[in-house]
Amino acid sequence: MKIYNTMTMKKEEFKEIEKGKVKMYSCGPTVYNYFHIGNARPFIVFDILRSYLEYIGYEVTFVQNFTDVDDKIIKKANEEGISAIEVADKFIDEYYKDAAAIGIRKATVHPRVTENIKEIIGFIQDLIDKGFAYVLGGDVYFEVKKFDEYGKLSHKNIDELVSGARIDVNEQKKSPLDFALWKEKKEGEIGWDSPWGVGRPGWHIECSVMSNKYLGANIDIHSGGQDLIFPHHENEIAQSECKNGCTFANYWMHNGYINIDNVKMSKSLGNFFTVRDVLKVYDGDVLRFFMLTSHYRSPINYSKDLLDSAKSSLDRIKNCKSSLDFSLQKSQDKEISQEEKDILANVQGIKSTFIEKMNDDLNTADAITAIFDLVKLANTSVNENSSKTFVQSILSMLNELTAVLNIANTDKAESEDTGKIEELIELRNQAKKAKDFAKADEIREELRKMGIEIKDTRQGTQWSKI
Questions:
Q1: Could you write out the DSSP letters of every residue in 335-366?
Q2: Closest to 422 measured CA to CA, from 450, 397, 381
Q3: What is the C-alpha to C-alpha distance for residues 261 and 242, in angstroms, rounded to an integer?
Q4: Which residues pair with 455 in a beta bridge?
């Protein structure tokens, strides 16, 4: 498998540190609100990466943190008259709900900053002892000039970063680029005892500590949104490599931005909205599918028209699965024919194409094209004369490939309305037999109002969601 490494700016053959195992860290949400669709993209993309690595045989340890103490969380807590921990607890719960709705599995570990204060203090003290950090009042800062390779991820030199970085300038700092490892407690803020007084961690130190704790000093993959390259990931590298004396992450992966109707998403422009907002209009699997229709490193444009198109495409896959399920029930338990064997050879070819595309830096867009090739093959090859083995083989392959991406895997049997739907179809069949076509049409319309479309075939009546 080849991965585009932000550090080297090229695709590289993936080589794990420990044979058969992958250690992977991805930056998680700051939990002061429902997460927005910009957050959703890295969550989905790197969930897919984890899933695919497991599919091709790796054992993946995946760590995704929760930043549960932060300026925004403190502000929210003060506005609502509750503690910062209460704010974080609430929105961690809401994160899990929305993440599940868009098909994201829980990480191997979801560490919280507030559960790792002891480790953070120890990490900072080590940097001070090694001469990479200094105390300024009740604050502790990392001294950037002490790390010769600073800027190697963003591919900028220190002078460029000093002039272009949007950072809080404390005139007492040795350099404007020096960043906070520990912040002195201010009035109305949460804080913990430390050797430097009561305070709280800086943002960047958190991920370094939690990655180090759960994955070790050297990890295989670190991932996140493109907006995190500088300063967050740059700072993670500096403090981690200075403390541990080794490469922090072998591969750095970053996803592209999301635009809304061809305009960059921004609260000030009023085009900023959450996944929870989207879920009021679309099923979560539609949003997930939409995110996978473009290469993860490319910018992606979000619009209602594109969401509608994603829904239509996803329905094609679901309807194909439904038809194959139906055909399987009606198919004959007979020996597979030579023609069917030849077609199944093409099915294996489609699987090979799917793997080839996923191996090429997680090209989900082209992998989905391969899935649609399988859908087309299924729709044109399966009929009332197909053997059970043939139908089952195609259905199994379709289930296998869609499971890797975790798309179109909703089983209609799970629907609460399934019993009602099947009952109405049977009543319609009885009406047709009795030549009561008006009644049959009435039932068809009732099903349509329920969001169900029916199709009469030689094998019987099939139904699917509209």
A1: PPPHHHHHHHHHHHHHHHHHHHHHHBT--HHH
A2: 450
A3: 43
A4: 462
CB 203 within 8 A of CB 233: no
Which segments in the chain show pLDDT lower than 70? 161-170, 410-418, 458-460, 465-466
Domain ranges of the chain: 2-255, 413-465
- Residue 392 vs residues 236, 332, 376: alpha-carbon distances, Å: 49, 11, 16
CA separation for the pair 129, 148 (Å, rounded): 18
| Nearest partner of 43 among 85, 99, 124, judged by Cα | 99
**What's the pTM?**
0.88
CATH of domain 2-255: 3.40.50.620
pLDDT for the residue numbered 341:
97
* Category of 344 on φ-ψ map: left (φ > 0), alpha (ψ -120 to 50) or beta: alpha
Proportion of the chain above pLDDT 90, given as a percent: 79
Task: Give the containing element (helix H, strand E) for 23.
Answer: strand 21-26
How far apart CA 23 and CA 222 sit, in angstroms, is 9
Closest listed residue to residue 44, CA positions, set 104, 106, 108, 3: 104
CA distance 254 to 6: 7
Q: Evaluate whether 259 touches 271 at the Cβ level (below 8 Å).
A: no
